[in-house]
């Protein structure tokens, strides 16, 4: 494993053990058996390294929770439709908040840094854009949506994920379950009525 890879592995460990805000350049260098200057050489800054490590961790979490994209509904061997798939995905996602708490805390800490560190904001914005490009298809399969609708649907899912994770962090006992989320979404859709 080269120095760059050791730094990435060290950053993931430090995020898990110390979080985004409390990890220092010395922590990273020590955990990677590297010198502090190597962080800037390979990643530009401590924050850019931590953000890259966090985004890789979040991508792995999303793949674990969402799973492979749902294939086209035209194939009878396809997995369940979105209406059957979404309750499972939301349930697994909410359950993962307990096992992946450190990742959620590090994400909140990184988001707070994005306001003052443009390079961190740019990394997170690029990750959001990548997620918007694929999330609707991953969760709903190959629906005949235009690009704007697919993007909007992915953005709504992302807003729900962010909001649920924050509620879970600060008030686990009263945070909504997957059934609560689906009940609320159905009520919201009924209240919205047909599209105009």
Automatic annotation (TrEMBL):
One of its GO terms (molecular function) is transcription cis-regulatory region binding. The keyword Transmembrane does not apply. This is AcrR family transcriptional regulator. SUPFAM superfamilies: Homeodomain-like, Tetracyclin repressor-like, C-terminal domain. InterPro entries: BetI_C, Homeodomain-like_sf, HTH-type_TetR-like_transc_reg, HTH_TetR, Tet_transcr_reg_TetR-rel_C_sf. It holds the Pfam family TetR_N. Keywords: DNA-binding, Repressor, Transcription, Transcription regulation. Residues 1-61 form the HTH tetR-type domain. It comes from Actinomadura viridis. PROSITE patterns: HTH_TETR_2. It comes from the Bacteria. Residues 24-43 bind DNA.
């Amino acid at each position: 494993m080269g120095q760059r890879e050791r730094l990435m592995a060290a950053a993931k460990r430090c995020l898990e053990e110390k979080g985004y805000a409390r990890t220092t350049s010395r922590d990273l260098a020590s955990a990677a058996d590297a010198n502090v200057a190597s962080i800037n050489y390979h990643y530009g800054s401590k924050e850019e390294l931590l953000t890259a490590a966090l985004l890789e961790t979040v991508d792995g979490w999303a793949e674990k929770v969402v799973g492979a994209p749902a294939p086209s509904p035209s194939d009878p061997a396809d997995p369940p439709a979105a209406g059957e798939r979404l309750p499972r995905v939301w349930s697994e996602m909410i359950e993962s908040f307990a096992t992946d708490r450190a990742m959620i805390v590090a994400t909140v800490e990184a988001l707070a840094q994005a306001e003052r560190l443009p390079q961190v904001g740019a990394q997170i914005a690029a990750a959001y854009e990548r997620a918007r490009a694929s999330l609707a298809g991953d969760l709903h399969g190959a629906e005949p949506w235009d690009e704007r609708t697919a993007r909007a649907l992915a953005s709504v899912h992302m807003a729900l994920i962010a909001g649920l994770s924050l509620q879970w962090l600060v008030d686990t006992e009263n945070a909504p379950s997957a059934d609560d989320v689906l009940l609320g979404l159905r009520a919201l859709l009924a209240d919205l009525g047909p599209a105009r």
